[in-house]
Every structure is written in structure tokens, then in C-alpha cells.
Design brief:
Elements (H helix, E strand, L loop, with lengths): L1 H6 L8 H71 L5 H19 L4 H43 L7 H11 L10 E11 L5 E3 L8 E8 L8 E10 L15 E4 L2 E4 L2 E7 L4 E7 L8 E9 L3 E9 L1
Helix pairs in contact: 2-3, 2-4, 3-4
Length: 313
Amino acid sequence: MDSNNKNQPTEKKNPAPVEKNTNENVYRGTILVLVLIIGVLTFMLITSRQSLRDVSTERTIVTDRNVELEEELNSILAEYNQIKNEYDSVLTTQDSIIQANAEEIRRLIAQQADYRRIQRNLRMLQEITQNYVREMDSLYTVNKVLRDENIVMQEEIQRFTRRTTELAQTKEELEGKVEVASALRAFQIEATPLRIRGRGREEETDRSRRTDQIRVCFTVAGNPVASPGNKNAYVRIADPTGTILRVSDDDQYSFVIAGDTLQFTMRDQFNYQNMDTEVCMDWFGTDEYEDGLYLVSVFTDEYRLGETQFSLR
């Protein structure tokens, strides 16, 4: 038995195939890990580039919007400045308000504030400037009418060279520029001589000896920016000699405007609520009226509202 075993060849174990398989598995795992890492890095690179493009696009949009807002603001201010140059003396107070709003909008644009907020502020500024433009156009129209009325008055006044020094002073006042307040102004100023018939019936007349009273009516124009409340209205009627028709020379029958103390013919109070308000006053204080041209001026405590005239013969 032993001799037979000795003659048989001895089998040797070879570990090489096992080691080869192990190495291949390691290589494959390493390659798989590297592929995954490359995939993740590629995804991150693509995402980063997209994010950069989004940020760049957003910045471009914001910049374009800011440019548009600046251009719109400049357009509003250019329109306003054009009107301001024409009416600079009237827009002193309003100008500070508009400039303050414009600076606030520029500050919001510089801070890249909410786009809709800036748009709301721009709309508000545009509304303010447009209101002032309409107000200035209205004042220009009123001033033109007053200038035309003054021309007519000057022609009438030149026909009465026999008047006294006081009438000449009244003429000078009428020839001067009529100050029209931005807050209150009057139109449709009418003075009507009246005769009282039986049972208190009134009829218009142009006869001095038949005149029993003088009625002065005018309309104070509505203005949404004026302060509402009770207002004093004063009427001065100058007869053909330039004398102001009045109750007496006492201080209680006078008022002060622009530093001057003036006697008034009539005074009344009206309630102003920012809409067209009609005011009428009647004068009964003269027994006999002279023939000639009568000049009528209307005032409030602060402003000279306008003039009219009538003649008796």
C-alpha cells in the first residue's frame, strides 16, 4: 500500500485564478466609483452653469427695468419742468413736493426695491404733476380773460378825464396786474342796478334816478386743493367820482389785504366746500346815484378775485 502511494504523483494547488478574479473585481469597482464621481461632477457643473445663466438673466431684467423706470421718471419731470418754467412764480410750493417724490423714487430704484411699489410711486407723481399742469392751464385762461376785461376797462376809463385823483388811483389799480390765487378765484362777476316796484317786485334799470339797490353776484370756482370752510367776501363799488360807496369810515367797515386797509361797500360770508359757490349781495345804502360808470371789485380776506362795471344815465 505504501509503495503504491509513493509512486503516484503529488497534486499541487494553484491560487493564481482566485487572485486574478479578486483583482478584476477591485478594478471594476474602482471604475464604477470613478464613473459615478464623474457623473455627479458633470451634473453639478451643468447645474452651476444654469444657475449662473439664471442669475445673469435676472440681473439683466432688473437692470432693464431700472432703466425703464429712470426713463419714465425723467419723462415725467421733463414735462413738469416745462410747465414750471412757464409758471415758476406760482409753482414754488408745489415744486418742493414734486422734487421730494422724485428723489424718493430714485432712492427706491437705486436700492432695487419692489418693482410694483416703484410703479405706484411713479403713477402718483404723474397724477400730481398732471393736476398742477391742469391747474396752471386753468389759471392761464382766467388771467387771459381778466387781461381782456382790463383792456376794455382802460378804454372806458380814458373817456372820463374829468375824474378826481381818487378815480385816477382806482384806474391805476385796475390797470395793474390782477392777482389770482391758486386756491380761490371767481368768475361770472355781475353788478345789476335794480328798481323796486309795487309789492317788492324787482326790475333791472340803467337810470340813476330809478335805481333803488345794486346787486352784485359772482361764482367762486371749485378747487379740490383749497381749504374748505367759511370765507369772507368783500365788495367795493366806486361811483363815477371814484368815491367808494360805504356805510361809514369806521374801521368796522374796512378790511386789510396785502398790507393795505380798504373800505368796503358790502361784506358777507359764504361756506366753501371745494365746489362752485354762488354769492350774491345787495346794496341799499345810497339815496341818489350819479350818472356815469361804476367800478365794482370783489375780494376775500387774502385775494382780489376780480372786477366788473356798470353804467347809469
